Amino acid sequence: MILNKTYGFTDGTLSAPQANAMAAVIEPLMSGNGAPWLLYGIGALIALVLNAFGVSALAFALGMFIPLELNLPLLVGGAINWFVTTRSKDPQVNTVRGERGTLLASGFIAGGALMGVLSAALKWQNVSFDYSAWWQNPSSELLSLGMYCIIIIYMVRASMRARA
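The chain above was modelled as a monomer; its predicted structure follows.
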């Protein structure tokens, strides 16, 4: 409720692509209007073709409608997972490393979500910080990229420490 009151879901400030996709599928069925069965059929056909070629239809569909700023971290996470789960000849060690990486990534996701809610709660209470001058500075992008690289290195090293 705080997120909706602070940012709003309908004006696009706080986008929710998964929720909007589900709403687009369910709305015609619930409102009594005709559902776009031809489009559903085309989607099912595409899913069957993807499965025939060994491509996950769900991953493909998510990649199609999630914005690039959300897709790129998913791609980097997949590369990290591939790296840490293919370094050992022992499959059990690789599995443990992958599970540890998943646990670490889940913690980062949960922490980011909690900080987003905290940020919305502060803004909802009219507590705001003006970072516009810092965001305009090119050094902010370099610092962000550097911190992102540090997080990637941490994820790889922490995952590789796991032993079976």
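Residues 97 and 159 are 5 Å apart (CA to CA).
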